[in-house]
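Posting here for the record, re: phenylalanine.
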Amino acid sequence: MDHWREKIESARSLAELEEIRVAIFGKKGELAQAFARLKSLPPEEKPRIAKELNELKGDLTRLFESKKEALQREALQKRLEAEAIDVSLYSPRPVGGALHPVMHTMDRIIDYFASLNFAVENGPLVEDEFHNFEALNLPDYHPARDMQDTFYFKDGKLLRTHTSPVQIRTMMRQKPPIRMISPGAVFRRDFDLTHTPQFHQVEGLVVDEAGKVSFTHLKWILEDFLSTMFGDVAVRFRPSFFPFTEPSAEVDISCIFCGGEGCRVCSQTGWLEVLGCGMVDPNVFKAVGYENVSGYAFGLGVERFAMLLHRIPDLRSLFEGDLRLLEQFQ
Ligand code: PHE
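Prediction output follows.
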């Protein structure tokens, strides 16, 4: 029966061929039906027709198998072509990602202190007044506690304005001695040429038995840290004030743009402020229940370090996500 041959021959895909197989060879297919009709034939015709049918079945089966093989070969060929990879294709340079300069700077700072055995501590970004202010000896009337400066939530919580609350959390969780840094994001209601509402700080805290930690240690480690980061610069400590340290100092490096001669970046002073620090105020130890200890603390702004290290003139370019800037840090 030629129409079956034609059908098999005409199949254009394996799926189509499968449909045809069911129609011809299936349990209720045309061959099965033809065999079923044998029963109703006169007995003298049966052997001949049965023989013909069996031969036909054999022919069709062979035809089907070879068609199937051909279609499978064709499908494989198509797939090989579609999935081919041209290994000789020229590609200039794989495009890799890169750390943002702020994160890269943060990593460098962390590496320095980690190499001196400082533990890295983290704290929540959403803080409460106790950890962010009160325990740090920042009284109610301190301007930082004003709505103008701090992002408050309706329930009285706030976005931490510095990484110093992590000092408090660490001291309340552990017994002295403490030797930690805490890197992370901080938030202030401030947005202009030199301020962004979110930026990053690294906090440092060292506490040990009274008398074991002094300003000398603080001075040595910060000088060593700053020369590791900036190379050959002069470092000076200027008396200053923070509620949570006493005495306190701000730390300057000689201007890396003019070498201390005086230029626009350093406002003709020859110095750039890079750090705040001091000896932990006794009121802070009282708030966390520490007795007979002494310690030092410091805090720095990572964006400022990144800008100085990479000579990025405008703070805002660190937050714009402009690929032309970021690609320079690959
Ligand atoms: N928390 C201070 C700030 O945000 C920085 C600081 C930390 C100063 C620790 C002294 C000691 O400005």
